[in-house]
Amino acid sequence: MATASRPIAAFPRPEDIFSRLEKEPVAPLYLFHGDESYLIDQAVTKVRRRLGNIQEGSSFYAGESSLDTLLETWGAPSLFTHQSLIVLRNAERLKAVERERLAKEAEQHDASQPLIVCVHGRVELTQKFFALCAKKGFVAEFRPPFANQLAGWIQRFARERGVQINDDAVHLLSDLVGPNLLVLATEMDKLVAFTFPGTAISADTVLACAGDLHKHSAFDLADALGQRDKQKALRLLRRVLADEREALPVLHAMVSHFRRLWQVKEMLSSRTPEEQIERAVGLRGMRLRALVGQSQMYTVADLRRLLHRAAALDLTLKSSRVPPSALFDALILDVCTRPA
């Protein structure tokens, strides 16, 4: 899930990285990169607290903010605190000449004026400025949790907010949201407000607060794709993407559903008893039979190709300015028109 420079374990957990941020001396440079923006924001907050709980500091955005202004601010002494903090976000947009300027400037700074560099995605640590971050500072990579880690994160968010969430609610919420910790934390805040003054969250609570639109739409969309019915699939897409900010949750619900279809298909082919399938997918009765029926509409090659396309779409949605509806259209047309 997360990797860091000078690792304390082969695959350090975010907690291990955060512990180091709290205990080790303040570094002049921090490089936080990866696809999990929630954990990157948490890491930035940890550093701020080390500097006297600075609320914001000075934040700049590569590709939008002037690098000259950043360098002027970074070089100016603070009148209010012994240590000032500069945060540069979207640093994946830095041009080579800008990385060169930052590297030269960083050579002149110490831990009294730390710079935090945030990159969406992975970085090439051989590039001069990022290599300097690794040599002179602290580097950590944060990745989205795996599917089998979502339940632990949801339970953690619940404990942090002083509420209890049962297993059915955890399973439903992970299906609806997928591996996006920022969205999961936001949904948990909504659930806490929805249940107040109560402290118990059930699956019914999740349905009442978050709704079941994505889950039902994912099932219906899978049905349409299995039949190669592109008109029905595109109509469903228009319904769930009325708000394009919901693009990632919709995609994650789709991916979760197709992974479950693949799981059911493989268990059926190995003649796994129905009771064991029920436990594995968390469904029984009519809902399980519907899932089994739908799994038979796809070959393993279909599912593999669809999930590969969905993974590519996930990256594109996070980095492209193309409207999400157009990207989803391309996915649906591809799946519906090409044979496996």
Structure description:
By secondary structure, the chain is of the alpha/beta class. Helices cover 59% and strands 9% of the residues. The chain has helices at 14-23, 37-50, 67-75, 96-106, 128-136, 150-160, 167-177, 181-195, 203-210, 213-226, 230-240, 247-269, 274-281, 285-295, 300-319, 324-337; strands spanning 2-4, 29-34, 58-61, 86-89, 115-120, 138-142, 164-165, 200-201. The strands form two sheets. Strands 1-6-2-5-4-3 form a six-stranded mixed β-sheet, sandwiched between helices. Strands 7-8 form a two-stranded parallel ribbon. Strand 4 (86-89), helix 4 (96-106) and strand 5 form a beta-alpha-beta unit. The model is unreliable at 6-10 (pLDDT under 50).
Short recap of the structure:
The protein is an alpha/beta fold and 340 residues long. It has three domains: 2-142, P-loop containing nucleotide triphosphate hydrolases (Rossmann fold); 147-210, Orthogonal Bundle (Helicase, Ruva Protein, domain 3); 213-337, Zinc Finger, Delta Prime, domain 3 (Up-down Bundle), CATH 1.20.272.10.
Describe the strand arrangement of the main beta sheet, using strand numbers: 1-6-2-5-4-3
CATH topology of the largest domain: Rossmann fold
Number of strands: 8
SSE ordering:
EHEHEHEHEHEHEHHEHHHHHHHH
**CATH superfamily name of the largest domain?**
P-loop containing nucleotide triphosphate hydrolases
Strand content: 5-15%
Oligomeric state of shown chains: single chain
CATH architecture of the largest domain: 3-Layer(aba) Sandwich
How many distinct folded domains?
Answer: 3
| Largest sheet: number of strands, sense, barrel closure | 6 strands, mixed
Total helices: the number is 16
Report how far apart the termini are. 32 Å
Low-confidence stretches at least 5 residues in length (pLDDT < 50)? 6-10
Mean pLDDT: 81
| General shape | globular
Per CATH, the class of the largest domain reads Alpha Beta
Q: What is the structural class?
A: alpha/beta
